[in-house]
Amino acid sequence: VILVGTLLAAAGWAVVRRRRGAVARQAALARMNAELEHRVAERTEDLNRSNVALAAEIIERESAEDRVRRLRDDLAQANRLSILGQIAAGVGHEINQPLAAIRAYAETGAQLIDGGHTPAARDNLSEIVRVTERIGAITQMLRGFARRGTGATRPVAVDEAIEGALSLLSGRIRDAGARIERAPIAPGLAALAGRIRLEQVLVNLLQNALDALRDHADPRIGISVGTTPTTVTINVRDNGTGLSPEAQGNLFIPFATTKVTGLGLGLVISGDIAREFGGDLRLEPDDGPGASFTLELPRAP
Ligand code: ADP
């Protein structure tokens, strides 16, 4: 009986102990659960906080990018206007000559009418029309140049863009006595660009070449065009002063200029425009004498 009693007591105690153990385990589990829930809540809160911070950062970065874009547009526009100012003098020259011609045709025309030479007078009038068309073309080009370009790109005939840039600078080129050497361009070759902005880049490169050729005995500017199946490259080189290693290191840095009246923006903005087209603008190193710049653009299919 004693043995049985002892065994029963032991069994009972074991049951109690096991139950107590189960209760303790359950409590521990509950504590762990609570701890886990607490941590999840904390982590979620952290995540929420960083999400909010991230969203704020995105907004901030977007508005910073907007500001950069606006600034870049403004700079491009300022550069365009400064170029306009510089070429205004040359344009005065360009327009004066046809104006003098108009005056001469009109004066002799009146005399021809007085003398009864109507067909000859009519010829004079046709000449006046032709010359005013030339003035119209010059002012139209200037107006187009001053207008802010749109962001879109489309096929632009490479020879026409080069022609446009050269005619904007024709007065300066003539005054400098610079010889322009142009290799023939494949007919119909087009780049994906904006006409006005492409001309702006070419005008910048040509103006720099002319600056570097000041007082040169035999000033020459070479313009050549190369292609690959996907790109068009326009190379503008001169036989001028070239660039010192220091000037080369500062290229494309805003306001870095070696000129007394320079702004140091031309190449910065030109490079920017080239990249906007999906292309690039670079100095060809050791391609002297003088400087050699290559503008690379996507080729229009
Ligand atoms: P800016 O003409 O107002 O100085 P740019 O950005 O067009 O500004 O040119 C920056 C500098 O690069 C010039 O001051 C000049 O030192 C150098 N540079 C550019 N093109 C030429 C070139 N064709 N020959 C010599 N130096 C050049």
SSE diagram, text form:
Layout: H1 2-114, H2 118-146, E1 154-157, H3 158-168, H4 170-176, E2 179-182, E3 190-193, H5 195-212, E4 220-227, E5 231-238, H6 245-250, H7 266-276, E6 280-283, E7 292-298
Parallel strand pairs: 2-4
Antiparallel strand pairs: 1-3, 4-5, 5-7, 6-7
Adenosine-5'-diphosphate binds next to α5 and α7.
Structural notes for this entry:
The structure is a single chain. By secondary structure, the chain is an alpha+beta fold. It folds into two domains: 1-85; 148-298, Histidine kinase-like ATPase, C-terminal domain (Heat Shock Protein 90, 2-Layer Sandwich), CATH 3.30.565.10. 65% of the residues lie in helices and 13% in strands. It is built from seven helices and seven strands; from the N terminus they run ααβααββαββααββ. The protein has helices spanning 2-114, 118-146, 158-168, 170-176, 195-212, 245-250, 266-276; strands at residues 154-157, 179-182, 190-193, 220-227, 231-238, 280-283, 292-298. A five-stranded mixed sheet has the order 2-4-5-7-6. A hairpin with an 8-residue loop joins strand 6 (280-283) and strand 7 (292-298). Helix 1 packs across helix 7, helix 3 (158-168) packs across helix 5 (195-212) and helix 5 (195-212) runs antiparallel to helix 7 (266-276). It is elongated. The model has no long low-confidence stretch (mean pLDDT 87). It binds adenosine-5'-diphosphate (ADP). Adenosine-5'-diphosphate (ADP) is lined by residues 204, 208-209, 212, 238, 240-243, 247, 251, 257-259, 262-268, 291.
Summarize the structure.
Helix content is 65%, strand content 13%.
